[in-house]
Amino acid sequence: MADDTILETRGLTKEFKGFVAVSNVSLRVRRGSIHALIGPNGAGKTTCFNLLTHFLAPTRGQIFYNGREITGARPAAIARMGLARSFQISAVFAHLSVRENVRIALQRARGSSFDFWRSESVLRAFDGRADELIDAVGLTGFEATAAGELPYGRKRALEIATTLALEPEMMLLDEPTAGMTHEDVGRISALIKRVAANRTVLMVEHNLSVVATLSDRITVLARGEILAEGDYAAVSRHPAVVEAYLGTSHG
Amino acid sequence: MDAPDPATPGPAAPAAAAPAPGIALRAADPSLRTFRIATLAMAIALAAAPFAGIYPVFLMKALCFALFACAFNLLLGYVGLLSFGHAMFFGTAGYVSAHAAKVWGLPPELAILAGAAASTLLGAVTGALAIRRQGIYFAMITLAIAQMIFFFYLQAPFTGGEDGIQSVPRGRMFGVLDLANALTMYYVVLAIFLAGFLAVRRIIHSPFGHVLKAIRENEPRAISLGYDADQYKLIAFVLSAALSGVAGGTKAIVFQLASLTDVQWQMSGEVVLMTLLGGMGTVFGPVVGAFTIISLEHYLADRGQWVTVITGAIFVICVLAFRRGIVGELAEWWAKRRA
């Protein structure tokens, strides 16, 4: 395998009872790139995403990360290897403050998470780094706010800050701009661009303008199979892609 | 926003959308200052209670159950797992402590530790079997294992069957404190209770406790951050079993008796009742719940079977009208008044 491939799948297939959600998907994600996974509704994007993060087990096929097979690994173990994911619905710890949310991630990376005999005051050591990350996603001033009270766009920003706290080598973002207002989309896109500077990003995204501006490479899925792959210009002219998207609200 | 792919059950969705049932009902955690003042007041009140004419044996019984309920609450209130077999830890420690004190001649502190160690071990085995299940399945497995343990104690030769292990010597704590003296025994029990109570609070407010809280709020997200949720739940389960063991072992020394009562499924039910009545997920709730139930049993003892009917009725009223429990409702009322 070439050194510049960070994540690779070979013949990845997921069948549910009598239904093939993902069929024989072989994907290569280049190190340092922003790779987008797009496709019409029901194309199998989210299933594919859950297979990569091991929240679902594949029926067939293999997954390699940095040349190592990780097909059977557990989701928490994948995260510890440096492959961190976000969720389609904004996943924050609602009753914890913004700072505590970020600290939970910092705490795991830096140990002490099994210490049930120590005071929580040891966690203050993470406050400095937590506030830096909070600042990086534009949430300064909300440190003490309960995460559940943040508006939607800011929850997504918090989720990205929490994911970044893991210092992942690769980030998997599940529809990072879904359900956002126009301003929020711009802010999150800029943020993704910034955090992708020294890491790899694979994202499932619906907003084609976001995909067009951010992605180095795009894989189009339809009915569980890869339809086309390439940069935005190539993919958007591909006849099969045009056909798949025709008549849908996207385009 | 787009609907998720139809074939994707989305493991994240249901868990994140529906937090553990306790969450919505959980009262705000008291600040450290409030907690310290309340704990100090509780310690002073308990230390003075025997001089107010309250029977020490009654107080000791209530304290043992209060510690048991606090240990149980660690699991139910802070991890969201309803164990329906916690009597196995309470009762096992009772038998082991009684046996250690009576047959092996260990001093009381070592006898209680031996009991707690046995419960911890049992907790590790039971927990490893049950922790991957959730909700009703978790409750069923813990109940089933507890029933097996019960029949083991019913049949095992060293437990004395229906008679239990009787006339367990109280002995001398650390070789100096003569526990035959009721007041000395009382203050030892009070010290054990306070230590256990503070231990629970520390666990909840430790780095480990923060991870537990994150797991309870959004398990898939905690997993995606690299936490093996089951490992953390298992540790909480074992800690809960260990503290239940301390309570059970202490009770055996106080009453100089270990019997089937403490390992029966009714006891598992009683600790659920105490915790819910007092307020699960509150630090003081289980203590209040235990004192309420033990008082009822104590002062209504001459009414015979009616005690069960009355506690049952209180449980129903509590679930229907005061779902946060006594302490939970009070904390809520206080928070509203100040807002």
Supply the CATH superfamily name of chain A: P-loop containing nucleotide triphosphate hydrolases
How would you describe the shape of chain B? globular
Shape of chain A: globular
How far is it from the N-terminal to the C-terminal residue of chain B, by CA? 36 Å
On the 0-100 scale, what is the average pLDDT of chain A?
87
Order of helices and strands of chain B: HHHHHHHEEHHHHHHHH
- Counting helices, strands and paired strands, the structural category of chain A is alpha/beta
The radius of gyration over CA of chain A amounts to: 19 Å
Q: Please list the strands of the largest sheet of chain B in the order they lie side by side.
A: 1-2
β-strand amount of chain B: under 5%
Radius of gyration of chain B (Å): 20 Å
From the N-terminal CA to the C-terminal CA of chain A, the straight-line distance is 35 Å
As an assembly, this protein is: heterodimer
Strand order of the largest sheet of chain A: 6-7-8-3-9-10
What order do the helices and strands of chain A follow? EEEHEEHEHHHEHEHEEHH
**CATH hierarchy, class of chain A:** Alpha Beta
CATH architecture tag of chain A: 3-Layer(aba) Sandwich
Q: How much of the sequence of chain A is in beta strands?
A: 15-25%
Q: How is this structure best described in words?
A:
The complex is a heterodimer of chains A (251) and B (339). With 251 residues, chain A is α/β, with parallel strands linked by helices. Chain A has one domain (5-245): P-loop containing nucleotide triphosphate hydrolases (Rossmann fold, 3-Layer(aba) Sandwich). Chain A contains nine helices and ten strands. Chain A has helices at residues 45-52, 75-80, 98-109, 127-136, 152-165, 182-195, 208-214, 232-237, 239-245; strands at residues 5-16, 19-30, 34-38, 60-65, 68-69, 83-85, 170-174, 200-204, 217-222, 225-230. In chain A, the strands form two sheets. In chain A, strands 6-7-8-3-9-10 form a six-stranded mixed beta sheet, with helices on both faces. Chain A has a four-stranded antiparallel beta sheet with strand order 2-1-4-5, with helices on one face. In chain A, strand 1 and strand 2 (19-30) form a beta hairpin. Chain B is mainly alpha-helical and 339 residues long. Helix content of chain B is 69%, strand content 1%. Chain B is globular and about 50 Å long. In chain B, 53% of the residues are buried. Chains A and B meet through helix 1, helix 2 and helix 3 of A and helix 1, helix 9, helix 10 and helix 11 of B.
